[in-house]
TrEMBL record, chains A, B, C, D:
Domain of life: Bacteria
Lineage: Bacteria, Bacillati, Bacillota, Bacilli, Bacillales
CDD domains, alphabetized: DUF326
Descriptive protein name: Four-helix bundle copper-binding protein
InterPro entries in UniProt: Csp_YhjQ, YHJQ-like
Amino acid sequence: MSHEAYQECIDECLACIKACNHCFDACLKETDVQMMAECIRLDLECADICAYAVDAMSRNSPFASHICRLCAEICEACGDECKKHDHTHCQQCAEICFRCAEVCRKMAH
Amino acid sequence: MSHEAYQECIDECLACIKACNHCFDACLKETDVQMMAECIRLDLECADICAYAVDAMSRNSPFASHICRLCAEICEACGDECKKHDHTHCQQCAEICFRCAEVCRKMAH
Amino acid sequence: MSHEAYQECIDECLACIKACNHCFDACLKETDVQMMAECIRLDLECADICAYAVDAMSRNSPFASHICRLCAEICEACGDECKKHDHTHCQQCAEICFRCAEVCRKMAH
Amino acid sequence: MSHEAYQECIDECLACIKACNHCFDACLKETDVQMMAECIRLDLECADICAYAVDAMSRNSPFASHICRLCAEICEACGDECKKHDHTHCQQCAEICFRCAEVCRKMAH
């Protein structure tokens, strides 16, 4: 694994934490919160696994690759949910989630 | 700090993590999610600080006492919000939050 | 998945967090810290994934089963390292890790 | 609180997570691990509180200011320990910790 790929993945995960937490906060303030319930749930899942992946990669965990595989999967699911909603915070979050999923997948094999 | 007080506080925090996460999940499934938005937010805050407090106490962190003070405050706020709602998961969560707040406060000085 | 199996796995993970964090703290206080370096590292990994698994299960995460599979693997690795060392904290931690791994594995399919 | 100050603090905390986790990993690989025990412990504490502060700020937590106060204090302590050691990873970590502490302190009142 090149050191650059490593740094890139950490930075994508950090961007994803920020986007998901912002989307979580913004969804809870929407008028139709119910429609956003699944988005709220996945934003949280995604922010959590990204934080865990950042710790694993930056600590050189022997499990970093497995954790990145799971992270890719959860980012993908979060992106799929977010892109269903027209809110700017959802669309931006979806874009960042898909980018993060792609980079995590490269780390995963 | 007696070892017993320590263990008691860890166990209250662990119970509080379970209660808050369960309440979070149940709130997101309620028909009126909007009314539960603040509860969802505080359930998450409270589960997070309790997990952090458990780590700090069980690792003998030099900051355990400061972290417990913050934990008591957040548990109190979460309990105050939860007790406004009639759902069983909210009422049970409120009760556990208040108990956890009380035990954390004893650790905090 | 029966509700009981679920609760059992959450409780094993909570016990594992306590054991791993205690072992982490105790290892850092041993006279030969260098010999404990891998144990310190894995205690932390294991406490982290267990905390993440507890959150996932108690929030009814759609990824709970995948997370438990990863948790089983990391608990197993931590147990394997801990059991190499004669310190009581390591032996106890190994035992709890193996038990947690076993219960997590049942959740994972 | 200006939005810029907010973003700056999130970014300093993210940089601090990376630096502390890298220092943690590097300390565990040093030949004299025992001398690094306190540094290992504080690196972990500091990475944990920074991750928690990032979540709190990016979710607009009502407790963000209190969490930043605690974060400033722990960053300061971690920086104080790191700067005692000549290793490059420790010196760099100290520098980032002090900068993060300063920015967190501004958020805290």
